[in-house]
TrEMBL record:
Protein name as it appears in the record: Nucleoid-associated protein L0P57_04425
Subunit relationships: Homodimer.
Database matches in Gene3D superfamilies: Nucleoid-associated protein YbaB-like domain
Pfam families linked: YbaB_DNA_bd
Superkingdom as given in the UniProt entry: Bacteria
Organism name: Anaeromassilibacillus senegalensis
Keyword Flavoprotein listed: no
HAMAP family linked: DNA_YbaB_EbfC
Keyword field: Cytoplasm, DNA-binding
Described function: Binds to DNA and alters its conformation. May be involved in regulation of gene expression, nucleoid organization and DNA protection.
Location (main, coarse): cytoplasm
Similarity-based family: Belongs to the YbaB/EbfC family.
Length: 116
């Protein structure tokens, strides 16, 4: 006895695989374009009431760090380091989150390691 599949399943074999491959390729192209666009975008964050401002690119590279002279205290270098770290981490977090959201939107949550 031969098993029957519900309507809409089977019967397409190679055509369905080709269609899936085309869709995956289209998604990959859209993700590559979005990634390239986001890599060029700049993200800025501040800490210490705007005492320190860090700017990073979408490719997660620090582009600039601005420090107001009044927060430079030779007696408290650790506080300045903390402010710099906080600003850089927040800018990096913003860049990463936007990229993840955009990729999720493009892929519709579809995630196959090695494919996309």
């Amino acid at each position: 006895m031969k098993a029957r599949l519900p309507q809409g399943y089977g019967g397409g074999g190679a055509a369905n695989i080709q269609q899936l491959a085309r869709q995956a390729q289209k998604i990959q192209e859209e993700m590559d374009a979005a990634s390239a666009e986001l890599d060029q975008k700049l993200y800025t964050a501040t800490s210490g009431g705007d005492a320190v401002k860090a700017t990073v690119s979408g490719s997660l590279e620090v582009q600039s760090i601005e420090i107001k002279p009044e927060v430079v205290d030779p007696e408290d270098v650790e506080m300045l380091a903390d402010l710099v770290r906080a600003a850089v981490n927040e800018a990096l977090r913003a860049a990463s989150e936007e990229k993840a959201e955009k990729m999720e939107k493009i892929s519709g949550g579809f995630n196959m390691p090695g494919l996309l």
